[in-house]
C-alpha cells in the first residue's frame, strides 16, 4: 500500500508539477507542455489562491507523485486537472487528489452568492487512461474534446481580403487592450463554461506572463468607427516551444461574422509568423466547434492530438 499525503501546493512545487504534466504530454505528443516558470506565473495571477486551488500528493520519501489544480471558476462551474507520475499507484494517488479538489470546489462555490447548482469539469491529458477510469467511476461523463492543430508554412500564405471598412493592427500595451478584451469576451459568450474569457486583469496578467508574449504578433481588426471587430493572439513560443508559433484568443464579434473576417485575421497572423521565420504554427480548438475546425482545415491546419474534458453536475 502506497503511503500518500495530500497537502496544499507551494510555489516551490512548480517544477515537480510541470514535470508530471510533461510526462504525459511528452509520451503522447513527443513535446513538453509547460515548464516551472510558466507554472509559477499561472499560480501568481490575480486572485489565484494557491493553497486553495492546487494540491500535491507526496509519498513517504517526500517525492511529489501527483497533483490537482483548480483552473477555472466561471459563475456556476469549476475546472480542474489532476495527474500522477506514470507508473505510480493510480488509485492511491488520483483518488485522494480528486476528493481534495471536489471538496475545495464545494467550498469555492459556497462563496457564490447565487448558491446555484454547479458543474465540475475535469481536463484529462491525452491518453491518460488511469484518470479517465477514475472520473468515470465517480460519475463523470465525457463532455468535450479539445484538439491541437498545426500548419506547416512552406510558403507565404495568401494575402487576406479584409471586409470593407476593416483594417488590421496589433495589440498596443496600455492602449487597445481593454477594447480587445471586450471584443473577444463578446465573441466567447456562447462558448461552453470552461472556455470563456476571464476578467480583464486576469486575462491581461496571463497574456503578459506568457513566455512567448509579443504584442506585435497579435492581429486586431478595427472597423471604420474605431471599434474592434475581431482579434487573434499570437505567441512566439507555443507551449514553451521556441520554434513553434502559437495562436489563441481568436474571436470575431457576432455582428461581423459571415463576412470573411475570421479568415482574413487568420491569414494575416500566419503571414506575420512566416515573416518572422516560423515554419510551424499551432492552436487549440474545441473539436465540436465545426465552423472553426473547418476554417482551420481549409487553411491547412491538421490535428496533432486530442484531450478530453469530463463533467459531473
Strand count, sense and closure of the main sheet? Answer: 12 strands, mixed
Question: pLDDT under 50 segments (min length 5)?
Answer: none
Distance between the amino and carboxyl termini: 32 Å
Radius of gyration, rounded?
A: 20 Å
Question: Could you tell me the mean pLDDT?
Answer: 91
| Helix content bin | 25-40%
Spell the H/E element sequence.
EHHHEEEHEHEEHHEEEHEHE
Number of strands: 12
The dominant shape is globular
Roughly what fraction of the amino acids lie in strands? 25-35%
Q: What multimeric state do the chains show? A: single chain
Write the layout of secondary structure elements.
Elements: E1 4-8, H1 14-29, H2 36-43, H3 50-53, E2 54-59, E3 64-72, E4 77-84, H4 90-110, E5 119-124, H5 129-137, E6 141-152, E7 167-169, H6 177-187, H7 200-209, E8 219-222, E9 228-235, E10 245-252, H8 261-275, E11 280-286, H9 290-299, E12 302-312
Parallel strand pairs: 4-5, 10-11
Antiparallel strand pairs: 1-2, 2-3, 3-4, 5-12, 6-11, 6-12, 7-8, 8-9, 9-10
Q: What does it look like?
A:
- The chain is built from nine helices and twelve strands.
- The chain is α+β, with helices and mostly antiparallel strands and 313 residues long.
- Helix 1 crosses helix 2 (36-43) and helix 4 packs across helix 5.
- It starts with a strand and ends with a strand.
- The model has no long low-confidence stretch (mean pLDDT 91).
Amino acid at each position: 500500500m502506497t503511503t500518500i499525503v495530500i497537502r496544499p501546493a507551494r510555489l516551490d512545487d512548480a517544477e515537480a508539477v510541470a514535470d508530471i504534466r510533461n510526462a504525459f504530454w511528452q509520451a503522447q505528443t513527443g513535446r513538453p507542455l509547460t515548464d516551472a516558470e510558466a507554472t509559477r506565473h499561472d499560480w501568481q495571477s490575480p486572485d489565484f489562491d494557491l493553497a486553495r486551488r492546487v494540491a500535491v500528493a507526496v509519498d513517504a520519501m517526500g517525492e511529489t507523485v501527483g497533483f490537482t489544480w483548480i483552473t477555472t471558476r466561471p459563475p456556476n462551474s469549476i475546472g480542474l486537472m489532476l495527474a500522477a507520475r506514470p507508473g505510480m499507484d493510480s488509485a492511491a494517488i488520483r483518488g485522494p487528489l480528486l476528493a481534495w479538489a471536489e471538496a475545495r470546489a464545494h467550498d469555492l462555490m459556497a462563496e457564490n452568492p447565487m448558491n446555484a447548482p454547479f458543474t465540475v469539469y475535469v481536463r484529462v491529458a491525452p491518453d491518460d487512461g488511469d484518470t479517465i477510469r477514475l472520473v468515470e467511476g465517480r460519475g463523470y461523463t465525457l463532455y468535450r474534446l479539445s484538439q491541437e492543430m498545426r500548419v506547416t508554412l512552406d510558403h507565404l500564405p495568401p494575402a487576406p481580403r479584409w471586409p470593407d471598412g476593416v483594417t488590421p493592427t496589433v495589440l498596443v500595451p496600455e492602449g487597445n487592450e481593454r477594447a480587445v478584451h471586450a471584443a473577444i469576451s463578446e465573441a466567447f459568450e456562447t462558448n461552453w463554461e470552461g472556455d470563456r474569457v476571464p476578467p480583464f486583469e486576469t486575462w491581461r496578467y496571463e497574456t503578459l506572463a506568457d513566455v512567448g508574449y509579443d504584442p506585435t504578433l497579435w492581429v486586431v481588426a478595427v472597423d471604420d468607427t474605431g471599434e474592434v471587430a475581431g482579434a487573434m493572439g499570437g505567441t512566439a513560443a507555443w507551449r514553451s516551444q521556441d520554434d513553434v508559433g502559437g495562436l489563441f484568443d481568436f474571436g470575431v464579434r457576432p455582428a461581423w461574422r459571415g463576412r470573411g473576417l475570421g479568415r482574413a485575421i487568420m491569414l494575416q497572423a500566419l503571414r506575420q509568423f512566416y515573416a518572422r521565420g516560423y515554419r510551424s504554427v499551432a492552436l487549440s480548438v474545441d473539436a465540436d466547434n465545426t465552423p472553426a475546425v473547418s476554417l482551420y482545415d481549409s487553411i491547412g491546419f491538421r490535428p496533432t492530438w486530442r484531450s478530453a474534458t469530463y463533467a459531473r453536475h
